[in-house]
């Protein structure tokens, strides 16, 4: 082992990683003093490292509350992890089984900033091609997967991602256009346990999505199914959501190294 004296930045790197891991395990942003106390670090060190992390977007300082949370660059790391396939490899057979069970196209996505990034798609037979191909990014506030994950994020994090009306791009002219509308939408999603979208991504197509929650309560991904709206044979959204929820829960168990209920 190389002595720390030859690499004086090693302790700083270790402290930085401990701070990021600590923030990732919290369900809401925390004060710097609490981080210093919980990790046994000097306050001056914690403030210095948080300031540096904030400059690169890895943490976010909520000035009014004097608290710190993960920033959008941390989400980008999560997207990078997903692109390296571990999550996709675990999710692919479950998404394929979901598509077979429901008879509709299914997909798996992760958050990347204020977008969702699709990492698995399984198209059902005789169903139309979707825009949610692997590698595609879409605005999270418009998609069922994105809404499901946003509803599970700390509210402070959502406010940081959507500070004003400029953060709400549109595809079909539908969907929330300002923070207050998004807050109301996410409130209803938390009440039902699943998210929907009807024509906000592609006209004539609807989706229902459920977040995949890790053991710390963080939404690491979301599962969804998409189907063409047919007025003569409408799908039961609650019924679809229950099946999607089963898949999301099973993926969460597999990510934690467990199977079964």
UniProtKB/TrEMBL annotation:
Q: Where is the HTH iclR-type domain?
A: 10-72
- Keyword Transcription regulation: yes or no? yes
Q: Which UniProt keywords apply?
A: DNA-binding, Transcription, Transcription regulation
| Domain IclR-ED: from-to ranges | 73-257
Gene Ontology MF terms in the entry = DNA binding
**One Pfam family named in its UniProt record:** IclR_C
InterPro entries, A to Z: GAF-like_dom_sf (IPR029016), HTH_MetabolicPath_Reg (IPR050707), Tscrpt_reg_IclR_C (IPR014757), Tscrpt_reg_IclR_N (IPR005471), WH-like_DNA-bd_sf (IPR036388), WH_DNA-bd_sf (IPR036390)
Q: Which PROSITE patterns did the record assign?
A: HTH_ICLR, ICLR_ED
Q: Which PANTHER family match?
A: HELIX-TURN-HELIX TRANSCRIPTIONAL REGULATOR, ICLR FAMILY, HTH-TYPE TRANSCRIPTIONAL REPRESSOR ALLR
This protein's name: DNA-binding IclR family transcriptional regulator
The scientific name of the source species is Microbacterium murale
